[in-house]
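Support case: guanosine-5'-monophosphate complex. Customer-provided input:
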Amino acid sequence: MKNKGLLIVYTGASGVGKGTVMKKLLASEPNFRLSVSATTRAPREGEADGREYYFVTRERFDEMIAEDGFLEHAEYVGNKYGTPKAPVFKMLDEGLDVFLEIEVKGFLQIKKAYPECVSIFIIPPSFEELRLRLEGRGTESPEVIEERLRTAESEIGYKEMFDYIVVNDDADRAAREVMSIIADIKKDKE
Ligand code: 5GP
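Agent response - structure generated as follows:
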């Protein structure tokens, strides 16, 4: 049988810097791909449709649910997010390793449906650091920042359910750790 790629759930609190680590992973490893999710959230400055997300209306999102177009989907701080199914299966079939950058409720759905997935939880060195990063980023209102921090606190309660926990104290170091985790898994599969 053709050796399929790995399905990797990559979860971390808002502001933990997982996007920066992800960019380093994609730049360093040609076999890595990041699934592009659909969301009802408004684009942030600099985000492009089809690159960071597919930005869709609530109506379109609900249609995609009805069409069974999502691998998983969840609501997060007032917006819906979902992983389009077809592109992920296509990439896995091509032997590519596909990262799903999703929150905890989505992870639980994936873990149930695809127990063979690899799950990585990115955590901040401290909550104070997370607050500083979210405030420094300046992309969310103070109310949304508070809600994202509360969500992060509740998400951390799920950390034992992940296969690996990586502390993002430094983006280069964290990226190296993720790469070595994946390399070890692939070596074991050979
Ligand atoms: P943000 O609005 O900061 O881009 O994302 C908010 C949260 O939604 C993050 O934790 C992000 O990982 C998560 N997220 C992004 N796409 C998806 C998705 O397709 N499914 C789920 N369940 N969560 C997602």
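The mean pLDDT is 94.

Case will auto-close in a few days if no follow-up is received.
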